[in-house]
User: What shape does this take?
Amino acid sequence: MSLNTNNLNIKKLTFRVILMIFNLLIISLMLRLGAYLELFSKSKSTLDIDRVIISNKVELSKNEKNTDIIFIGDSSCLMNINADKFTDISAIESLNLGTLSYLDFESYGALLTNAINTIDSKVTLICLIIHPEFLRRAEPSESHIEFFKSCNKNEYTLNFSEGNYLNNVLSLNIFKDAFYGKTPIPLEGRFGKYYGFTSSLNDYLNTHRGSAIDPREFSPKSHHGNILYRITDRKIEQLIKFKALLPSQCKLVLCLSPIPDILTDENYIDAIATIKNKIKKKARIDYVLSMPVSLPSKYFSTKTHLNSTARLFYTEALSREITDLNIFKK
Amino acid sequence: MLFNSTSFLIFFFIFIGLYFTYGRRNITTRNLLIVISSYIFYSFWDWRFTFLLLSSSLIDFKIGCLLQNEKVQSKRKNLVIVSVFCNLGVLFLFKYFNFFSESLNELLINLGASKFFPQAKIILPVGISFYTFQSLGYAIDVYRKKTTCVDKLVPFLAYVSFFPQLVAGPIERSTNLIPQFLSSRKISNEFIYIGFNLIILGLFKKVVIADNLAPLVDMVYGQNINTGPIILFATIAFGIQIYCDFSGYSDIARGIAYILGFKLMINFNLPYFSTTPKEFWRRWHISLSSWFRDYVYIPLGGNKTGKSKTMRNLVITMLLAGIWHGAGWNFILWGLWHGLMLSLFSNFEPKNFVTKTLGWFLTMIIVFYGWLLFRCNSIEQIVNFTLNFGANNFPNWFNDYLFTLLLFGLVFFILQLWKKITSELCPAINLNIFLNSLVVAIKIYLIVLFWDSNGSHFIYFQF
Assistant: This one.
């Protein structure tokens, strides 16, 4: 015979395997016990950019007490609006609760409710800033919504492949939550160069009243796709529900974010005007701002985000538009 | 198919099942099973390159047979030249053609001429540098009469394509591996036990340490971050990453081979404890450095031809070793750097604690600056990073960077220190059954925790 396996003792090998599995289960049991005894303090999950943004905004919405105007919306709100700059120019205390387009109006509403319940003074204005891309998105991302909900319930679970058999048997999620909640994770690409780690991005958002900068560079060549933007009826319904959350003294302002002019065609301005009218009419938005719907490509870091220079000008323009509404004077 | 992927686990369990049932019949069945499985394993990357692997093997098999029967020295020499030409020709075509063509075109453009040399649309076959060198080594060994030719095709094909070490080594010597394909193998509990421990150790190094350090390295080298301390720490992180990545692969390869009843050579032996550059190369990627020593350095004259020629031989050998790693100026510079340092410190033999400590420090500076050359993406980046090494500015995330590096660096350090103190094949292997299984269970737990089901690539696959 070519393979002499006479020296193989299957009983001994099996015993070793069983012993190893037993040890694995002991580790798992110890983790469960630790979690039961609350030895692992609940820590904020910071696995990647999206999770940092979501968990940070939930915290901000529950902790910031001094705000007159809240910017809320998708990532174009997060990246295009400089809340510090806005406050400097207008002398109106502002907070940027812009998150991601992967969430939905229901999540934005939950954030808003947190903020309204937290803020001492009465918030006068809610500025909803969304990108046309968000309006035509059919469904939000389930995993992002779930993560948002867990943060909002103060659970901060990382949502690692839930339901995975191995995960459950070995209690991996307990370890992951404890580990990733305390370990800074390097960010990838340009975000890594600009912010460094998940923890530094979180600090940045805290010190800049929820605003961030998209450090990438826009390349028109890599951005194609159609610009036939529209708003679905479902989004309108959600927007109506969102509006209903606002306290009576609070006004809702809508601003649609710009796209690079290289991506527009001659019908684009009309298409956006139609969307705005539809929203104003059906959702009864108090004000719809007439901010530019497109800007030169050099002002962009991506198709949906302005770069660090352009966002300052954009914030200035927004500040002027909002001041012209005379809401705060009243 | 990556060792650290779920698809490999499935492949391996099916193979093991067949190996311990059908493979028991006779040597030919066992070897045939290894050959078929190895070619299936290889075809997961690109099935077309299995023909290249087969052609390379067939050429050297035939040349080996002809060399064995040929008595005229000049004809024997011609035969071995054919083998060298074929193996290095294939390597040149797939790995270096575009690099040389592009470099010559750039030179022509700088001289005011237009592009002349064409660019070929070819992709690099995985593991080509490893199996061509292994196959070529066999032909040279037969030529030198260090080994006799293999007169049966199947064992030879198994020797060249043996899947545990096919794509990233160790580059096995015919004298060690071929006899193992020709003889009956005894498999004992000890073999399985050692093999399993090595596989777990290798996966731990790769999945837990290397893959967690990779983002630290990429964020600096990928984004050209120019702050001195960060360049230094990213280079240290890369030194640990590449070691854990590559030695992890070698451990897994050796572990799998053990379970199948084969013993592969040790490829790494605590290289970061070396006190001279020479010692480092006796401990790092041993299968490659000894290949270059035996088939390049010694034939050039080694250290027997005077000081200046020894220096020349060292530089040539290391330059070729650099080029072996890849078609890029950074690898050429890396090879030259090590060649020059080996020449400069060839007579340095630390004897007491002080000189050994100084020697270790010096060796680490040489080695880690070498890693900077190795990892940089361009000459501009090398210049940039070298000039900015002293730039004393700290980004605001410096503490986070240091914390993460220290966290995984500490795990690496403990592993290395354990091996250094105990001289064990892998940590905890000699402990009693209960403690060993606890240590293995902890390793498995962490592997599962950081496991990426798609597997992340091993750095040396690109070579």
